[in-house]
Amino acid sequence: MDRPRSVERSLREAAPHEIFDVVRSAIVRRHRASAVDLLLVDYAMTRLQPVGVLPHTRPPVSVNDSAPGRAFGAQEPHCVHDRSASEVTVYLPVSVRGDRLGVLGVTLPGDGEPAAAVLADLQECADALAHEVVVAERDTDLFLQARRAERLTLAAEMQWQLLPGRSCSRPEYSLGAQLEPAYAIFGDCFDWSASADDLYVTVSNGMGEGIDAALLTNLAINALRNARRAGLSLSDQAYLADQAVYGQHGGSQYVSALLFRFHLPTGQVEIVDAGSPKVWRVRSGVIEPIELEAQMPLGMYEDTSYLPQHLRVEPGDRLLFISDGVFDALSPGGEKYSLRALAASISGTRLLPASQVPRVMLQELTGHRGSGPAADDSLVMCLDWHGPTADRDR
């Protein structure tokens, strides 16, 4: 039997569009599998889409009420037995650094549970495939196309290409975020980046609609990244992004943004609120908004200076970053979501991992708003702070 590193080497040597074929061939050879399928979660995170050459693919399955969806949600292998055929299908999460990409389904001979060594080997194959899918998306459209349950608008295409992922995790924290309407988003955006000591988180909303809003948000996010990668302070990052947007639009367009820098060893947080979305905190079961001093949005005026604010997060804290499209959404009867439903949604999702919270909250928002089209983009980001690691404490 080949060792997992042999599969990893074959994946690195394969053409980007062939990496799933490499994994499938290896699993068939090593475990006599009769079927191997890769299902990627769609942009709305409601369906798992089979990977294949379009349009010759099988129908998608639901994330909410299917065996593959159970493995995707729990992030653990899930087995389904077919006694009549003497087969068992194992569904394994395909994820990388906390970013949930999809599920690998493997049908094996036998009536009983697969041996622990077999499950471990299959999970290693799924993990190796996840890493290669992320890399391959730079050079092939196969996996990006497979994720689409419907066509993206051009503005949505621009926004999704801008995002870092939809979840990530490290021992100190877990992050999850989602945008809606997933296939027609235009102005809302999120970004994050971590180093050994710092986690930077940005939530932004470019004014306007369609491509204009997407272009504006792209300018602001890339200006912030440019300043961050130059090693500038959080205030200077906001200042230079403000200058970039103002220089392009002269104050006629602007971007509301919220910038966070978490110091991972201590939990100290630096914040710049540039007319931002709202932030809520859950601490020891208590739900409360974090009141910040809102400063001017990026690009509204020339030479705006930004002053940082500070707070500290404690192990067990949950922060929720919520855009105006969520906060101000109206029910058919005219009641704002923020009046009662938001707190109920935050409380109802308190036991879910951060990666699942945004999708569930946005589904509940749809129920509050009704079946009509959304009046604005909606963004929810959830950050669970676990605290410094034991290695840091020593």
From TrEMBL:
Residue stretches in coiled coil: none
Tagged with keyword Hydrolase: yes
Residue ranges of domain PPM-type phosphatase in the record: 172-385
Matching InterPro entries: Bact_Sigma-Reg, GAF-like_dom_sf, PPM-type-like_dom_sf, PPM-type_phosphatase-like_dom
Gene3D superfamilies: 3.30.450.40, PPM-type phosphatase domain
Keyword Acyltransferase appears in the UniProt entry: no
EC number(s) from the headed UniProt entry: 3.1.3.16
SUPFAM superfamilies: PP2C-like
Keyword set, alphabetical order: Hydrolase
Protein name: PP2C family protein-serine/threonine phosphatase
